[in-house]
Amino acid sequence: LGITHQWSYALEKPNTGSIFNIAWSIDGTQIAGACGNGHVIFAHVVEQRWEWKNFEITLTKRRTMEVRNVINDAVDLLEFRDRVIKASLNYGHLVVSTSLQCYVFSTKNWNTPLIFDLKEGTVSLILQAERHFLLIDGGGIYLYSYEGRLISSPKFPGMRTDVLNAQTVSLSNDTLAIKDKADEKVIYLFEALSGKPLGDGKPLTHKTEITEIALDQKGLTNERKIVFIDKNRDLYITSVKRFGKEQKIIKIGTMAHTLAWNDTSNILCGLQDTRFTVWYYPNTVYVDKDLLPKTLYEKDASEFSKNPHIVRFVGNQVTIRRADGSLIHLNISPYPAILHEYVSSSKWEDAVRLCRFVKDQTMWACLAAMAVANKDMTTAEIAYASIGDIDKVQYINSIKELPSKESRMAHILLFSGNIQDAEMLLLQAGLIYQAIQVNINLYNWDRALELAVKHKTHVDTVLGYRQKFLEDFGKKETNTRFLQYAEGVSILWKLTHSATYHDSSSSDQPGRSVTSNYVGSGREQ
């Protein structure tokens, strides 16, 4: 009897009397049983199946695989010297580990595999990315190219390879992520090509224990994202690279219990309670949080019964395994993947044309977020107008009218909620007044005053706006710093054109009178 993933896999009734005890081999491919008639019975797991696009592979015997191309019904037989332990089929390659060797087949040619010897014959996990694959055995973690060259062998303190599985290890073209078993709140991140810890070497740490992790597969290294589910079944996304002091971890889903990234575009799918959800552009949370719900596709998942598991997400097809072991295939719209392709190639006109053809609000919402992320405000304006976000169209128009490139870039960052980055950009460009005004507009009074005092300019402007703010709400000043700087300064709310002067950038601020009792108009230039 073999039981795997909680469904009945096979039933055998050997003529051996009662089987009193059973034990699996360390690689999980053989089982031995102590029988009532004094015999020892041995069994092997066969009939395992792997699918990828138009290929279907079956382990027919311990050392034989059958490859079927469903397009032309062509069949190839793959013979191995030793019994097959693990296999993986993805990204146009079949990787097979036997008890002594590793075989790498290309789906374009099944006759000439690349073969290399293994140090240990106990491979417990094979993970594939587009450019390379990962082998995990009792001795360590090894990253190989599809040409059979050892690329790296990452390590971390207290590493135990025997507890790693597909839910706790994730691989992309440039990054390897591994969840720590000793502290389940921690994810170790490595550069794939060097095997060294990413960035400053600090792991990613969450507030609660993590159950499943997954790296996106496409795009630039600097934009690599990782999603994870914690023990509360909340789904989070964060950037792999650390920008600034803290990593920005954002929740994008609840009651999640299985997920998968698409193999060719950064589209994420997952099961949330009784809903199947597709995040067509998860990066939206870093661009415009309000847009995220508009970029989702949701479907009732009650037909998948209890505890379904997403096996793979290839092209526009999602494969889900139900609790009884049966596989269900779901097709999603092919258009979001085409949109991703256009945007990655900066084909904005084609992207707009596609959205007009499809006439779907979800597509327009994705394009709006993609355009802002890529600083293409003309396309963003068209996309926001198409989903009826008129206030954002007006704001984008005001950004386009700003005179300096630095001002426009800073306000695009503000549009995405990156206040610190926007302020830093303005200060580096010498646009002190605009940096102060940004904080005034956001009611960051302490920071506005701090900047004014530090740069010895517009202290009276900040005091004037603060005074007007308090008057509007009928309150008195209680902040000691503002009281301190307000002594001896009176505020006149009128613009004087005599004896004016400017900061280093003429576009930074309005003309200011030299008299100490005057505040500038505060108008953005």
Name some characteristics of this structure.
525 residues; alpha+beta; four-stranded antiparallel sheet; 11 helices; 34 strands; Intraflagellar transport protein 80; Beta-prop_IFT80_2nd
Describe this structure in words.
The chain has 525 residues and is α+β, with helices and mostly antiparallel strands. Among the domains are: 2-44, no CATH class; 47-121, Lipocalin (Beta Barrel); 430-525, no CATH class. It has 11 helices and 34 strands. The chain has a 4-stranded antiparallel beta sheet with strand order 6-7-8-9, with no helix packed on it. A 4-stranded antiparallel beta sheet has the order 10-11-12-13, with no helix packed on it. A hairpin with a 4-residue loop joins β23 and β24. This is Intraflagellar transport protein 80. Residues 501-519 have a biased composition (Polar residues). Residues 363-495 form the IFT80/172/WDR35 TPR domain.
How many strands?
A: 34
Structural class of the helix and strand makeup? alpha+beta
Strand content: 25-35%
Q: Strand order, biggest sheet?
A: 6-7-8-9
Termini distance? Answer: 77 Å
Percent of residues in helices: 10-25%
Annotation field: number of helices: 11
Mean pLDDT: 86
Low-confidence stretches are 495-525
Taking all Cα atoms into account, the compactness measure Rg is 30 Å
User: Rough shape?
Assistant: elongated
Major beta-sheet overview: 4 strands, antiparallel
What is the compact description of this entry?
This protein has 525 residues and is α+β, with helices and mostly antiparallel strands.
